[in-house]
Amino acid sequence: MPPASAISAAAAARSLRLASRLTPKSAPLPRGFELSAVSTGVKKNAALDLALIHSTQPCTAAASFTQNLFQAAPVRVSRTILDTTGGTGIRTVAVNSGCANACTGVEGDKDAQTMVDLACEAVGAPKGAGLVLSTGVIGQRLQMEKIKAGLVKAGKGLGNGDEGALKSAATAIMTTDTFPKYLSRALTLPESGVRFTLAGMCKGAGMIHPNMKVHDPTTASATRPLHATMLGVLMTDAPLTAPAATSALSHALGDSFNCISVDGDTSTNDTIVLLANGLAAPKTTTMSAADTATFATHLRTFARDLAAMIVWDGEGATKFVSVRVTAPTEPAARAIASSIATSPLVKTALYGQDANWGRILCAVGYASVPGGVALDAGAVSLKVRSNGGELKLVENGQPKYPIDEAVASKILAEEEIEIVVDMGMGSKAQANYYTCDFSDEYVHINADYRS
């Protein structure tokens, strides 16, 4: 195994390159939103560790939460607030890093609620008009005195329209991330002609295999797409009702945050929040069906691009891998893609640039396919491709001997790789999953996480 210092130097160089390529130089905020980021002292070395988001106007809100049995206190508290408010009247979101406030019992719930109360007080919002997100070490209590002082400071530091605020806030919610993940886009609704802004940030690099439900406060249940903690806050000044926000977020997650995997571990804290204050069209209360559908499409693309940053920045990753599967049903295709994306043997082979394609078929073969769908091993086709070329490895269940190892090596030497599986049998349903390789650096990071 190479020395940790050498691996980390390579990872640092890659991080700088990815940040420059994937994040925007300018990141305007939607109308009415203001953000701040401070250091509370929870993290070492005075690193930013608390972000505060505020809207000058009440927002409709939608959120998606982890299905892990040990849901963290901020997940439970935020879900309850959405049930109480019906997803309306939300003014602020507080996000801390360094401590997940998970597996902390009744006291943890009290701390999360106190964070909400303090955030509302810091921005002058009514009590209960805020949400809370946390990430960091599981099983430790929040240092509430530091959090309280930090929220007061963050409230005083809010500044509307500061284009650097989104980057600073994205930095404050990082844990093992190597660069802040954020985007901002100006878009147009076709029927009304309304120009709106969509901005967002997320974090995550390890403990990434989200399996979230989009929470529907009108039924106290959820509509469920398929699935270091993953957190994200999406903000817009588009005029969305609470049901429209919930529907748009559900539509977006199926091809974004719920189809990424770094290590197959689903966090206790995974949360995505969508806030919409309507200031792009203050006289509009309900968008037309055409505009609503267009917004949902924009949000889906936006969320996918944000989620991809998490995979690019996977702990110790050197490769970004798209897994594309065609199968008789969409749930079957998704289950197979997930099985490939989470296989340690597939991921280590990718790191070693080893065309060990039998590992991919093995992962296909043990996938937990729902719905009793019958699959035929004799109908499967497999190929890999990248900027280095394309290589068919299996066609209709038969290996394409002889495998050209030189071409395979050239394909796998690229940083971005695509694995394509067709289950045959006239399959037309498709699913995508995004993953990365497993490297030495991943082991170093997770062996030393608390030190």
Automatic annotation (TrEMBL):
Ribosomal protein keyword on record: no
InterPro entries tied to this protein: Arg_biosynth_ArgJ, ArgJ-like_dom_sf, ArgJ_beta_C
PTM comment: The alpha and beta chains are autoproteolytically processed from a single precursor protein within the mitochondrion.
First-tier enzyme category under EC: transferase
Keyword vocabulary terms for this entry: Acyltransferase, Amino-acid biosynthesis, Arginine biosynthesis, Autocatalytic cleavage, Mitochondrion, Multifunctional enzyme, Transferase
Protein EC: 2.3.1.35, 2.3.1.1
Protein name: Arginine biosynthesis bifunctional protein ArgJ, mitochondrial
Organism per entry: Allomyces macrogynus (strain ATCC 38327)
Taxon lineage: Eukaryota, Fungi, Fungi incertae sedis, Blastocladiomycota, Blastocladiomycetes
